[in-house]
UniProtKB/TrEMBL annotation:
<comment type="similarity">
    <text>Belongs to the SEC20 family.</text>
</comment>
<dbReference type="GO" id="GO:0005741">
    <property type="term" value="C:mitochondrial outer membrane"/>
</dbReference>
<dbReference type="GO" id="GO:0005635">
    <property type="term" value="C:nuclear envelope"/>
</dbReference>
<dbReference type="GO" id="GO:0005789">
    <property type="term" value="C:endoplasmic reticulum membrane"/>
</dbReference>
<dbReference type="GO" id="GO:0031201">
    <property type="term" value="C:SNARE complex"/>
</dbReference>
<feature type="transmembrane region" description="Helical">
    <location>
        <begin position="203"/>
        <end position="220"/>
    </location>
</feature>
<dbReference type="GO" id="GO:0048763">
    <property type="term" value="F:calcium-induced calcium release activity"/>
</dbReference>
<feature type="domain" description="Sec20 C-terminal">
    <location>
        <begin position="134"/>
        <end position="224"/>
    </location>
</feature>
<keyword id="KW-0812">Transmembrane</keyword>
<keyword id="KW-0931">ER-Golgi transport</keyword>
<keyword id="KW-0813">Transport</keyword>
<dbReference type="InterPro" id="IPR005606">
    <property type="entry name" value="Sec20"/>
</dbReference>
<dbReference type="GO" id="GO:0006890">
    <property type="term" value="P:retrograde vesicle-mediated transport, Golgi to endoplasmic reticulum"/>
</dbReference>
<keyword id="KW-0175">Coiled coil</keyword>
<dbReference type="Pfam" id="PF03908">
    <property type="entry name" value="Sec20"/>
</dbReference>
<protein>
    <submittedName>
        <fullName>BCL2 interacting protein 1</fullName>
    </submittedName>
</protein>
<dbReference type="GO" id="GO:0016320">
    <property type="term" value="P:endoplasmic reticulum membrane fusion"/>
</dbReference>
Amino acid sequence: MAAPQDVHVRICNQEIVKFDLEVKALIQDIRDCSGPLSALTELNTKVKEKFQQLRHRIQDLEQLAKEQDKESEKQLLLQEVENHKKQMLSNQASWRKANLTCKIAIDNLEKAELLQGGDLLRQRKTTKESLAETSSTITESLMGISRMMAQQVQQSEEAMQSLVTSSRTILDANEEFKSMSGTIQLGRKLITKYNRRELTDKLLIFLALALFLATVLYIVKKRLFPFL
C-alpha cells in the first residue's frame, strides 16, 4: 500500500502536468487569435490564472521533497521541481512571443480595414495603447515570476550547502570517535599487561579514565565552543 506522502507527490505531479498542458493550449489560442483586443485580454487573464495555479503546485512539490526521509528520494524530487520550473519559464517565454504574434495579427487586420476605407484611426490608437498596456503588464508579471524563481533557486542552493556542511561535521566527529576508541584500547592493553601490580593497575585505570574524559571534554568543547 502506497504511503500517504507518495500519494500526495503523485497527485501533485499529475496536477502540474495538467496545468502545464492547459497553459500550452491557451498560448496556442493566443497565437491563433486575430482579435478583437477583448479576446486577447480574456486569454491572457486565463493564462495568468493557470500560471498561478502551476506555480503553487510546484511550490507544494518542493515542500514535499524537503519532507522526504530518504536523501535519494529527496534529491530526485528536487530535480523534478527544477525541471518543472524550467518548463514554466519556457512557457512564459512562449506566452510573450504569442502576444507579440497576436499584436501583429491585430495590426494587420486594422491596416486591411483602413485600406478598405474604414475610418478606424481612433480605434487603432486605442488598440495600440491597450496592447502597450497589456505588454507592460505581462512584462511586470514575468519579472515578478523570474524574481520568485531566482529566490527559490537561491534557497535550494543554501539548503544543499547546509547539507554538505552537516555531512562534513558528522564525518569529522566519526574520525574523532575512532581516535578516542584507539586511545581506550591502548589503555586497556596497558592495564592487562600490568594487572599483577595493584598500585600500577589503579594508576593506569585512573590515567585511562582521565584521558577518556579529557577527550570527551575536548570534543564537547570543540563542538559547543569552537571559538574558545
